[in-house]
Design brief:
10 helices, single chain, elongated, 298 residues, mainly alpha
């Protein structure tokens, strides 16, 4: 009986163990399937993200290529415009050269040598003035002018620095100095803020901060006269904007030394350009004055 009872107990334990193993196997299979489903879903998600990323990269690449192409076309258009402008100047110089030749040929037999020379100087001086104003080289007409008028060596020397490469136009100088003026103003404001912070005066600090936003002056103070800039660099900018190179050079000389240092070589270029402009005007005026007066009518 005891043996039979023991065998029955062992069969019950074996069945319980078998059931437990079967349940464990079922759970493992279920979790394995869940993991496989999760892995498949994750793979699909990664594929979707990869496709989205590829699309964004392609869009960004296309945008960069479009911007690069637009910039290239703009640069080519600018070069084409510059080339057309240069061709127009060349045509004008060629026409003036033909005028010189025609004038020389037509007057050689009818006019005194002095009259021919005076007329030639007028035409060549006009060529130099036109080239100087438009920013194109003028070495050839300047050399001709030196030969025609040996007494104009001072003016020719003032024009020489820009003869080979062309001079900066007034508009170019105004645009260049606009950025310089901003730097000078920012440096002055920074110096004021530093000085105010070191002084410890609250009113000075307040005015210093407000100066960067508004111009502070007394209510009963007279408004600045027209043409008088609130800051030294503004006088230079105003003169350049109205085409007054001599006035701009004079105003630049009045700038503080630290402002001139921030401007770099601009002051030298401005002074040379102003001298060249003055020399060109003097040459043109001298050439017209040398023309003989028209004969009085009988």
């Amino acid at each position: 009986m005891k043996a039979l009872e023991g065998a029955g107990a062992n069969d019950a334990k074996a069945k319980e163990t078998t059931d437990a193993i079967a349940a464990l196997r079922s759970e493992v299979e279920s979790r394995t399937k869940q993991n496989a489903d999760a892995a498949a879903a994750l793979g699909q998600r990664l594929d979707s993200l990869q496709q989205s990323l590829d699309a964004k990269v392609k869009s960004a690449t296309d945008s960069v290529q479009s911007a690069t192409e637009a910039a290239r076309k703009a640069a080519e258009a600018g070069q084409a415009q510059a080339a057309e402008a240069s061709k127009a100047v060349d045509r004008k110089l060629s026409e003036q050269a033909e005028r010189i030749a025609t004038l020389d040929k037509g007057l050689a037999d009818r006019a005194p040598t002095a009259t021919v020379q005076a007329a030639l100087k007028v035409v060549v001086a006009d060529r130099v003035a036109s080239a100087l104003a438009s920013g194109v080289p003028y070495a050839e007409p300047l050399a001709t002018l030196r030969k025609l008028d040996p007494a104009a060596q001072d003016q020719a020397q003032a024009l020489a620095p820009f003869a080979d490469k062309g001079a900066p136009t007034v508009g170019q100088l105004a645009g260049t100095f606009r950025g310089i003026a901003d730097k000078i103003a920012q440096a002055r404001q920074a110096a004021r803020v530093k000085a105010a912070s070191e002084s410890g005066d609250f009113r000075t600090k307040l005015l210093s901060m407000a100066d960067g936003l508004v111009q502070v002056r007394k209510v009963d103070a007279a408004a600045p006269a027209e043409g008088n800039a609130a800051a030294p660099e503004e006088a230079v900018q105003a003169a350049l904007d109205r085409g007054d190179l001599a006035g701009a050079a004079k105003a630049f000389d009045a700038l503080p030394q630290e402002a001139k240092a921030q401007a770099g070589d601009f002051g030298t270029t401005l002074a040379a350009r102003a001298k060249a402009s003055e020399a060109s005007r003097a040459l043109t005026a001298s050439a017209f004055q040398a023309l003989p007066a028209p004969a009085a009518q009988q």
